[in-house]
Amino acid sequence: MAPQLYLSVYKEQFGSPHGAKRAPLRPTSAHRRNNPQPRPDFLFPRSLQPSYKSTRSLPHPSPPVDFDRPLFPPVTHFSFHSPVTAGPGNYLRSAEAGKPQHMPPVNAALPSADKLQKLQLTEPPAATGVHFHSALKEPQRRTDYLRNVQPISERLRQRAGAQHRTRPQTSNPSGTQHQFPRAQYDTTHSNSPLDHSRCYSCFHVVKPFQAGHFIIHPDGRGRGGYATTCLVLSLGPFLGTVANKLCAEQLRAPLLPNDITAGPECNRRGSLENIYMKISSRICPLNISSHVPSASLRKAELLKTQLLDLNKDGYIIRNQGGAIVFRMDFRSGTLDLDSCSKVGEFLSCGRTTDRKLNFFIETVRPKDTVQCYRVRWEELVPDIPVEHAMTYKFAHWYGGAVSAIQHWPISISGQQAPKPFVTGDIYSNRNEFGGILESYWLSSNATAIKINNSVPFHLGWNDTEKTMYFQARYNDSPFKPNPGEAPCAELSYRVCVALDVTSIHKYMVRRYFNKPNKVPAKAMFRHPIWSTWALHKTKIDQEKLLAYADNIRKYNFNCSHLELDDRYTSRYGDFEFDTKKFPNASAMFQKLKSDGFLVSLWIHPFVNYDSENFHTCVERGLFVREPTGRLPAMVRWWNGIGGILDFTNPEARDWFSSQLRSLRSRYGVASFKFDAGETNYLPWKFSTRTPIRDPSFFTRRYTEMAIPYNDRAELRSGYQSQNISCFFRPIDRDSVWGYELGLKSLIPTVLTISILGYQFILPDMIGGNAYLNRTDGDRALPNRELYIRWLELSAFMPSMQFSVPPWEYDNEVVEIARKYAALHESIVAPRVLELAGEVLDTGDPIIRPLWWIATGDETAYKIDSQFLIGDDLMVAPVLEPGKQERDIYLPAGRWKSYKGERFDIKEPLHLTDYPVDLDEIAYFVWV
Q: pTM for this one?
């Protein structure tokens, strides 16, 4: 009968769903062959799986697996079969129902190379790997062809230790008959009646451990040995330069145990990819000519995929109308477009130099209205930085981090070389990134970019070039690779485009940010918090605190709780009241409780060297340590020198929590104000009990300490902390009008925090900190007009906080304060509480920019002195000294002003010099 080839096509999804867990037990080989939807741990060679208990497994720890990252895109398998006699006159044809058939125990033959040359595929591959599966005829004589077909996992087990025997190489692509001794190459198998691994010739599904890689994993044994091989059309982006070759797996040299970690190749996922990088360098082409439409991208100057155009120096993204909405330039080198290959939605390329590179762009369409591109540039040589430059001139940008000089949208000036993108105290150092920070940016042309959390991310900019520099590096950086990994930099991120800015932000929030699981205490939304800090600073004592509480009652103000700030202890790091300043703390708390006041305490993560607890923490190893790990790292903060607790250490967390529980049980403390937590208070080089790659992960661990007290807890730093149901406050404000930590910075800061996914916002103290040298006025007390305008704005925030009390001025200020405290309780708080409940489901902001309801409106993108509460309450405070009028922008719609005026407008309306008296704030309700 004339030779025939039967082609079957099926697709397997190797993506690990979010939150997937390792399988505790490994099913039989028959089960794996009959179920082409393996759990994530199936994707690794059996010898490298934690659940594999063979005594012959490799003496190396299993590499960590990040099951939250979708590393395994779909793989389409093209399986071809030579005529196989399953019975008289019957031939094995293509699989049905998406699964390949299993060969019965009969003979099968691999077509010779000259027949394979004639194979032409008419459909392009639909994913990163295209795998040809075939059955070899059962050999009858012993040769060493087994070196070409024995599964990788079995060879790795046999190479463990020093047990390897080198054997001569042979080449036999035409399917010559061979015979193998069974005992020497025995392997595990199943006795299931569906397991045909005892046959002479069997079809076995090939499982790639990751996109672009392949594993020959038959787990079969015949009466003479193995009878399966795999031909690989494309090794995909994870092997970069090895692509578009139809190869048989044919190692030219033994794979020794030290191959796993030796050599310059490296990868953040550990040794597995080293193995495959080495295997890829030994793959031998069979000179088989195959044509795959769209896979070869030779001799091109510009490559297009969906809305993205790639050239050797970077890429641009267009919207559906063809306009450029995003541009990124490569500053780490140029791509060799002749080396690029496109398989399915993956476009992978090499570089123009010999230095190894792992680069790909994957096109993802998660929704009909959203188009995303997953970009990865990974250097495979240690200590080489990766840098891309994003042009921001096409749009207005928002997000990133809070800053000392806060604008909305982001306003960039000057030049800054890339520096670590980590949390910092911008009050002490105005050039740091702020304490609330996420590697996420959003633009007015409906484009968003999210840097992967695994990236050692550094950010810089150049105002002249209108570019932001996104850099990944480990050299001269506080970022560290995972233990056992070489410092190979990887810059990976996702760029998404949608129809409008609101919809793309909603998608990104749901995709990348966690959401809180509860709403804080309703009293914090309804009634003001009263802090001792701006009024008394560190001179607070028992008498002053009780007098402060008495005045709150005297002037008929409500109170969510009193906040006893710095300094109620004698030394920083103690958790006992200073008996000189608070001679009877227990009686004081009892008096406050009987008067209806709850009390929270100011705390911090430092233990100064003169504290009684310092030696305890040193002896128990509770501090962050020097890089050697032997000595505690001493740090300087605004109140002295000491150690900083290591919140990656469970013992330090338990000790700190026990101190807080003791304060709560002894005095009835309601909650705590968690100060500091930024990474600039860590040494440049340090070590922690649990190694951390990103210093900002320390911030995350610190914020978790507030979870038990989240009803009334307050945090000033946050990183990946959106799920913590606490109030987050901006860093302290100065008592000034301007954008540098002044009144004008308040709305841009709150909007930025909202865009970063933190919705329960406490806008710090009304009037600012009232420092003598940082106050607009003749004395430390904030300027009267500034105080009133600040009070009016705070009344429309999720929560209000007093420190300098209104009775420090005059009766008119007291009346204005009462008016806006009541307005906040009656008008603002109900809306905010309703929106707070929605935050748990959607993550949408409570405080929103005007473009939220006016997408596509260029004016709305630039307004930084107005905001929305939800979609139906717009606020326009006066933020200029000496002014009792302001310009107001009204989006199209039906609005009613606080004065009763109605505006039914189909186009946006500018109200010029709209009158607003000193005791007023302009606001409009959608009707």
A: 0.72
